[in-house]
Structures are given as structure tokens and as C-alpha cells.
Amino acid sequence: MDGLLDALREDEKSVLSALGRGNVAALVQLLTAAVPKVREKAATVLCLLAESGSCEGLLMSEGALPPFIRLAESGSLVGREKAVITLQRPSMSADIARAIVGPSGVRALIDMCQTGDSITQSAAAGALKNISVVPEVRQALAEEGVVRVMINLLDSGVVLGSKEYAAECLQNLTSSNDSLRRAVVSKGGLRSLLAYLDDSLVSLCVLPRLVHVLRDGSVGAQQAATATICKICSSMDMKRLVGEHGCIPLLVRLLEAKSNGARKARRGRCRRCPQAV
């Protein structure tokens, strides 16, 4: 096993492509070995295989799912991390998503959302997002406390990717379930979602682009930019950022525009954040 790991460090692509069904089956068997270090090393190799995207079907056909779920639930820290990362891609399959929900795999994923490093947290959130696509398991996810965990990720996730997965998971959970919609609202999810959207808009440099359109765009483009600013000013922080980016003088200038549409959008903008004017 040590020799295999050394070879992977030297030429990962060639080694992974050379591993056949027999080798994969043997590695899957080692996931249940009595020695924790052996389990960790087997999980590390299989995790690399899963991340390469070339052996997902082979892993599942060789029975890797149950031992990986057990490893995610009660293995060592390294074993749990590798198991969670490995489970993310296969969880896009509805059948595998259902299988993960059955034997307490969801609890393991939720735990890693709360305690894992940035990579593991993102993988766990991604797996939960994938699982939430399956309508019949959404209630089971909610009963495990996934709503609160996703809201917490929106508020304090280590990386933006984790927050994106959390937002998508909440979207899936609430797409056809009124009780889950109420649960998200009651736990403060709307505020967290709006803050996430604000952060996303800032990271995508939306405001500088809108300023450019307000300054140099056509009348129609200016109207669209004004309406967009009106819609995104849902929080005090976003209103402050709109002012800091110099939108207000440009919006005021549009009051003099001949277009009724521009005036109407501008008045709506002023009503939403008068303190920025």
C-alpha cells in the first residue's frame, strides 16, 4: 500500500489509469481492514480514483458504498474526510443518494459540514445538495437537522463553494414543501440567503459593471441597470455598497432623463434606500 501511494505521488495519472477491476476490488476490501492505517490508505487511493471521475461506476459496482458510509460515520479523521470527498460525486445518482440516506450517511455528512476543513466541508455540503434533489428523501434530511446546518453554512461557511451548495440545498428542500419553507423562514434562513446573494454579487463585481452601464450605456441599458439596483438593494450592507460604488449621483442624473421608465425605476430605487442619497 505504501508503494502504491508513493507511485501515486510520482505519477498519479498513469497509476490511476493502470488500476484494474481486481485492484479496485482489493482496495474496497481493505476499507474494512482491522488496522485503521490500512483503512486510511485504501480510502486515500480510492478517493483519488473517485476524484479522477473515471471509476465511479466501478467503485459502486464493487460494493464501495457501504464501507465508505461506515468510514464517514465512525472512521478516523483522515478516513472520514476521504470518505466524504469520495461520496460527493456518486451522490448525484438518485439511487446512491437514497442509499446514503438509509444507513445514517446523512448524519456523517452533516457532522463534516460542522467540523471538517474547507475541502471536506465543501464536499459534505455538495453531497447533501445532491441528495436534496431527490424529493422523497427531503423530509428525512430535514429530520436530521439539515436546514439549520445549511443556514449556518451560509452564515459562516469557510469557502464560497460551501455557501453555494448550502443555498442550492435549501432551494431544493423548499421547492415543493410548504412546511420546509416555513422552517427555513423561522430559522432565519431568508436573512442568510439575502446576505449570501449580496456576497455573491460583490464577488462577481456586479456593481462596477452596473456603474459602467449607468455612466456610458444606452437609455435601455441604463433603465435595466437601474431596475437591477432597485432589486438587489434588499439589505443595509448592499445599500451601503451601492452608495460607495458611486451609483447615487448617476441615478440622480437619470431623473433628468426623458424616459418615463428610467424615472420610474429611479423613484423606486430612492424609496428603497433613501439613506444612501
How do you describe this structure in short?
With 277 residues, the chain is mainly alpha-helical. The chain has 19 helices and no strands. The radius of gyration is 24 Å and the shape is elongated.
Low-confidence stretches: none
> What is the β-strand count?
0
**Separate helix tally:** 19
Q: What sequence of helices (H) and strands (E) makes up the elements?
A: HHHHHHHHHHHHHHHHHHH
Helix content: over 70%
The overall pLDDT average reads: 84
Pfam families: Arm
InterPro entries: ARM-like, ARM-type_fold, Armadillo
What does this structure look like?
- The chain has 277 residues and is mainly α.
- The chain has two domains: 2-203, Leucine-rich Repeat Variant; 206-276, Leucine-rich Repeat Variant, CATH 1.25.10.
- Helices cover 78% and strands 0% of the residues.
- It is built from 19 helices and no strands.
- It has helices spanning 2-18, 21-30, 36-52, 56-61, 65-74, 77-88, 94-101, 105-115, 118-131, 138-143, 146-156, 160-174, 178-186, 189-203, 206-216, 219-232, 236-244, 247-254, 260-272.
- It is elongated.
Main attributes of the structure:
mainly alpha; 277 residues; Leucine-rich Repeat Variant; ARM-type_fold; Armadillo; single chain; 19 helices; ARM-like
Question: Which secondary structure elements does this structure contain, and how are they paired or packed?
Answer:
Blueprint: H1 2-18, H2 21-30, H3 36-52, H4 56-61, H5 65-74, H6 77-88, H7 94-101, H8 105-115, H9 118-131, H10 138-143, H11 146-156, H12 160-174, H13 178-186, H14 189-203, H15 206-216, H16 219-232, H17 236-244, H18 247-254, H19 260-272
